[in-house]
Amino acid sequence: VTTHALIMIFFMVMPVMMGGFGNWLVPLMMVMPDMHFPRLNNLSFWFVPNAFFLLGVSGFVEGGVGAGWTIYPPLTSIDFLSDPSMDLAIFSLHLGGASSIAASLNFASTVANMRHQKRGFHKIPMFPVSLGITALL
């Protein structure tokens, strides 16, 4: 598992691209410009700097985070998972996951609730629908 993969999945794709950019663009596409940046989106963004900080600190504690090809405990040696640097890295991923969940919940509620009363779901643009399905999955 490379740091690049962890950063792109847990810190870039879900919280930033969907939570940040998606929650900014979707209200514009659904003609509700007054609903930019809802509260869960802010919560999602506040988790990300803390998770980055923990991931950075984990590289300086003892031997750093070097678990080989995976950080899944049953598939790695106990030698790599016993130090505090791995604990910091795993907690960092949990914070990134919490950020992703907050962004997804916010995004799904944004797509479901923000539309005109007379506008049916069949008239919502395809971009918000596709990102809503992605957030649901």
UniProtKB/TrEMBL annotation:
Q: Is Transmembrane helix among the key words of this record?
A: yes
Q: What InterPro entries would the database entry show?
A: Cyt_c_oxase-like_su1_dom (IPR023616), Cyt_c_oxase-like_su1_sf (IPR036927), Cyt_C_Oxase_1 (IPR000883)
Pathway given for this chain reads: Energy metabolism; oxidative phosphorylation
Database matches in PROSITE patterns: COX1
Q: Superkingdom of this entry's organism? A: Eukaryota
Q: Name one Pfam family in it.
A: COX1
> What reaction gets catalysed by this protein?
4 Fe(II)-[cytochrome c] + O2 + 8 H(+)(in) = 4 Fe(III)-[cytochrome c] + 2 H2O + 4 H(+)(out)
> Record's Gene Ontology CC terms?
mitochondrial inner membrane
- Does the record's keyword annotation contain Nucleus? no
Which Gene Ontology BP terms does the record give? Answer: electron transport coupled proton transport; oxidative phosphorylation; respiratory electron transport chain
Q: Which ranges carry the Cytochrome oxidase subunit I profile domain?
A: 1-137
Q: What is its EC number?
A: 7.1.1.9
Q: Where are the transmembrane segments?
A: 6-31, 43-69, 89-109
A GO MF label:
metal ion binding
Required co-factor(s) are: heme
Give compartment(s): Mitochondrion inner membrane
What are the protein's UniProt keywords? Copper, Electron transport, Heme, Iron, Membrane, Metal-binding, Mitochondrion, Mitochondrion inner membrane, Respiratory chain, Transmembrane, Transmembrane helix, Transport
What membrane topology does this protein have?
Answer: Multi-pass membrane protein
Q: Which family does it belong to?
A: Belongs to the heme-copper respiratory oxidase family.
Please give the function described in this protein's UniProt entry: Component of the cytochrome c oxidase, the last enzyme in the mitochondrial electron transport chain which drives oxidative phosphorylation. The respiratory chain contains 3 multisubunit complexes succinate dehydrogenase (complex II, CII), ubiquinol-cytochrome c oxidoreductase (cytochrome b-c1 complex, complex III, CIII) and cytochrome c oxidase (complex IV, CIV), that cooperate to transfer electrons derived from NADH and succinate to molecular oxygen, creating an electrochemical gradient over the inner membrane that drives transmembrane transport and the ATP synthase.
> What is the official name of this protein in its record?
Cytochrome c oxidase subunit 1
